[in-house]
Write a structure and sequence with these properties.
elongated; 9-stranded antiparallel β-sheet; 27% strand; alpha+beta; 12 helices; single chain; 10-stranded antiparallel β-sheet
């Protein structure tokens, strides 16, 4: 009987538990999702990537520092102008300053409320100026319900734009709102993003980048309480620092005629509750400017922006490229010229590799002495290649030499080469840096061997490949390097004799700063070999 009562109690408990779970799920389903859906629908309506309605009147206020000028449209408060005062678009004397933000690539900060009767400032709202200085402006906007928005835009001496907002609730009820920030990039019908343009982020200790064209077929959504995200290209970036709260970050786009017309990144922040006669404060930090390593590092230390240094992304060879870029930056400041800095850095690298180069060259000279014995073995086992290779290996082991010893310094230089390539590719210091006849070390040598590097009075057609003076000098130094090493090395590995030609074709289209490094490295290697050969006798 007792066992039967226990079974009955267990069944009743289980039944009550099921009823409780059903009621709980019903409450969650019929009440909370509806409220959340209202919020998300309204957010989607306001910050969806669409062709924005132009403000009725464009009213511009400028904030200025030595490095940058921000153009702020106080009708809608859209950041649609950011001019970098110390960087030019081209090397031409009449070139204009670089523009990071424009009417086709802008940033916008705002609010959305879950109350359909609540009016918040939009891209059509006209704000009043309370206080203005050279690098700061305080703006005011009020709705007709008694809610007041005071927004302060301030710039530091470099590229940090800080937006502080105070929202005061003078109504008779509690309000809830959500902050958002979005960045929009519009594309013309025939415009395509170049290879460096992308969306980049570091969210919850994860670094990633997304090509704009990926937004044609896919939308991306993340949640994060740390990091940064934004728009990036080769030398410039516009990033939003993620606050330490729950945030939803989204990337999506608009496709028209099969092509991407609009790309947008946005962030929706955590819900803010404003009590009656109360207020809240909210701050947004934006990095708008050049990828200057020193500035990025300073912001990390001063503000604690998590791994902002990774916004200058050197990829797989980051561990090599970052120190090389830092060294080049310091040497450029010391010497006043990027070309001289590259030469000094090359000299330091060659000095560090000198012990290995010396050992390698000694091994090659030993190989030269073994040539008669090697030829004897080759003739003796002419019809038995396997035995021939076995005997040659025994000979190498006996005298502790290797036919590939001359390649070792070059192999070790390959990671350095790739690291330096990435460092020079996105180094703002290399952009428009001149050296001798080169006006810009960040692009390929513009001269051509086919008109004797400009000595003959005609220009080269656009379809003809460009092979400049510096790549030719690089190939010549590589050939001289092989000649000093001796023909035995080329005989042991025939493909090596074609390396100068291969490197000439490969390097002709690379940044001339990188070709300068390899040319100087070859020249120093030749000098080292001559010195070692003289010492050994």
């Amino acid at each position: 009987m007792l066992q039967q009562n226990n079974q009955t109690d267990a069944k009743q408990f289980f039944a009550r538990f099921l009823i409780f779970m059903a009621l709980s799920m019903g409450i969650v389903h019929f009440f909370f999702p509806k409220q959340q859906q209202v919020v998300m629908d309204k957010m989607a309506e306001i910050i969806a990537p669409k062709e924005a309605v132009k403000p009725l009147l464009r009213k511009i206020t400028e904030l200025k520092t030595d490095n940058m000028t921000i153009e702020l449209n106080t009708n809608g408060i859209r950041l649609d102008g950011a001019v970098l005062n110390k960087y030019k678009e081209t090397t031409a004397k009449d070139s204009g300053d670089v523009k990071v933000l424009t009417k086709d690539q802008f940033a916008e900060i705002g609010w959305v409320s879950d109350d359909k009767n609540m009016t918040v400032p939009s891209d059509q709202s006209s704000w009043s100026s309370i206080k203005t200085s050279e690098n700061e402006i305080v703006l005011l906007w009020k709705n007709n319900k008694g809610v007041e928005f005071v927004r302060t835009y301030s710039m530091d001496e470099n590229y940090l734009l800080t937006v502080k907002e105070v929202v005061t609730n003078k109504t008779a009820k509690e309000l809830t709102m959500y902050p958002y920030v979005k960045m929009v990039k519009k594309f013309e019908k025939d415009e395509k993003a170049d290879q460096y343009e992308k969306i980049t982020h570091y969210l919850d200790e994860s670094l990633d980048s997304i090509k704009y064209n990926d937004l044609k077929d896919e939308k991306f959504e993340y949640t994060s309480r740390s990091g940064w995200f934004g728009l990036s290209d080769q030398y410039w970036q516009t990033l939003v620092m993620v606050p330490s709260e729950d945030n939803t970050i989204r990337y999506n786009g608009v496709v028209e005629g099969g092509k991407l017309a609009i790309a947008q990144t946005d962030m929706i922040g955590e819900k803010k509750v404003i009590p009656t006669n109360g207020k809240i404060e909210y701050t947004t930090h934006l990095y708008v400017g050049a990828k200057e390593s020193d500035v990025v590092q300073a912001y990390m230390k001063k503000y604690g922006f998590e791994r902002l240094d990774l916004s200058i992304n050197y990829g797989t060879f980051h561990i090599i490229a970052a120190p090389l870029a830092h060294a080049l930056n310091g040497l450029t400041k010391w010497t006043g010229n990027m070309g001289i800095a590259i030469i000094i850095l090359t000299l330091v690298i060659r000095l560090l590799l000198y012990p290995l180069s010396k050992k390698s060259f000694r091994s090659m000279m030993a190989m030269k002495k073994l040539q008669p014995e090697m030829k004897r073995i080759q003739n003796l086992y002419k019809t038995d290649k396997m035995r021939q290779n076995q005997e040659l290996m025994k000979l190498y082991q006996k005298h502790k030499v290797s036919p590939m010893s001359g390649c070792l310094p070059m192999v070790l230089q390959i990671p350095i080469l790739f690291g330096l390539y990435k460092a020079l590719l996105i180094s703002i210091d290399l952009r428009h840096a001149s050296f001798l006849y080169l006006s810009d070390l960040s692009v390929a040598d513009p001269t051509s061997i086919f008109n004797l590097f400009g000595l003959l009075p005609f220009s080269m057609p656009a379809w003809m490949p460009v092979i400049g003076l510096l790549p030719v000098l690089m190939a010549v130094t590589m050939w001289v390097q092989q000649h000093i090493q001796g023909t035995e090395q080329n005989a042991a590995t025939p493909v090596l004799k074609y390396l100068p030609l291969i490197f000439l074709i490969m390097f002709a289209g690379l940044p001339s700063g990188l070709v300068l490094y390899w040319t100087v490295s070859n020249a120093l290697s030749v000098a080292q070999m001559w010195l070692i050969k003289k010492q050994v006798g």
